[in-house]
């Protein structure tokens, strides 16, 4: 007790602004449930496992810690699982994960000798008692930053409900047998509460749903409210009421009165349709497992170093699949595991290691690769229980890597490709002072685009990339006869694929070689300004690689537009061999006899770089039901390339906080940080500003603009005069032969990259292993033909 009193000056009483960690070690994945428990520094309020707390004492001199230990409680056998009724975790009506309950014990520990004092105890100094009570009653920083609940927002009463005008048309709605007034749809029907028209709902982006007749009727009449037929029961609050002006599901406090106007007795009606919220819940509780997850197959669990699962934090499977593959590469293993210890990373970290990307990547690397946490869970009935592991929760890593990013810091599902690119960018920035150690460079390669003008002269433009994004040429399918027979059979029987067994459906099979050939094939550029002809012409662009990376990532573009401009996911198999050779894709640079285009920059290119939307693109998007302003932004941000690109942009940016902000045409609105980023790519400031203005401030689109208008930056970009010339950015990129071996696959289930589920398959020690969040097992049938991202490692000669 005297020792404690002598160190009272190192004890702090937490303020409301303090971040208190008490659920997980900052340097490892130890928790209060670990064998040694958890030690909370009573000065910094950081938490450390038993093996790491001494490092913190050495670094800070802080001697007083709260030790928290959790042990399992006895629980009744066979506790039943309840079906969820709410899209949430850990709340009444939400998902019941049936976890074991624990009881906590506490003590005060003084380092370096681990002198222990019991808590609670009236003999402890008052300052210590208050400090500990405050820590225990506070919401832990881990929970505050990573809430494992995504409860849908509560519906609000519509502002149009109380003033709704209903037309006295004499329309009486029958209790059943409804049909759209403008087509043959008998499901997903909406009753307009003003005039009683029954019309079908919106067409979903996977092609299902209605034909947009209800929303088109609103645009023609401005009648604001509609209720979904089949959701009306005695519980009126559960009915699905939609407000078109508010563009949201709402409550109608006068719904009973509004229904009675059309002769509807809600008390006798039965529920036959899912509400919007129920459909959202259903999508989160029922994934299309099938082959990607190897459902129905007896997977043998595997444990040990490199076989540690990652706990799903709530729609975080995109992160888990990506990180499992990255930490199967030599570059990431070397940088954050074999050549960097946890202690070294901690010594280099700032005062709060939870905010340091290097520390958290090292923590994640050691967690995944050490084998410390890849052990079978002890089951009560070991004879019948399936062996499994708990996995490790990447909360702190997700928090630091997503900091400042509106999407990745949310609990929404994300695109695994977007996350991969975001992470590599963060890793590169974090290693900018020591590029030789940067593991992101192992994925980088140089791309060279050759543009052949109709004058016969050429230009060469270079850039760096870390993925090859490949279109899927369905016309190159190798099973065309089977496809034709299947389609004829389906048409003859009047069948829809969603009513057929998965095994009966014939899907196109496209060789990966055809996708690679499409990438390298010549492409026409219309309205290309030729400095040789001093006018616009049609040019031919061919693309090749100036270097081959250590790890080659192929992205399959499975999300496209159908004939009706409805986004859909291609239901296609890609035949991917175990070994590929891309040697033929190496760019040859300027060839003998080729003449470079003149350097003159056309004035109209430089002066007309204002963000103006193509009206034809905007009109087509508006006809699909999108907001006019949003459509203009989509056209501008995709450089008016086409409806498909603009629609993809819309779906990716619907939740942007500034989506409803007016379009700015002021040069001063170009973000300086975006200008600096383009300058770092090797472009001149003047060209960077004009490109950003032309593309609405989007860096990626600005880069595309520069490459599509190469003469605008000819003096600042590298226009090759020899086959060996390289831009500064390309200097030092890894290079080698063009033969690669497949070692990793990220597969996706769902109608969009922003919903569904991601799973990784990785070739380890000569066998394929499935990483499905916390589940890790030997794969018996890896879905090599169903990947979204394919990871290859270069084979040395």
Automatic annotation (TrEMBL):
Q: Which residues form the active site?
A: 317 (nucleophile), 757 (proton acceptor)
Keyword Translocase part of the UniProt annotation: no
| Enzyme class label | hydrolase
Q: Which GO terms describe its biological process?
A: cell communication; protein deubiquitination; proteolysis; signaling
Which residues belong to any copy of the UBP-type domain? 156-266
This chain's function reads: Recognizes and hydrolyzes the peptide bond at the C-terminal Gly of ubiquitin. Involved in the processing of poly-ubiquitin precursors as well as that of ubiquitinated proteins.
Q: What is this protein called?
A: Ubiquitin carboxyl-terminal hydrolase
Q: Which organism is it from?
A: Brassica campestris (Field mustard)
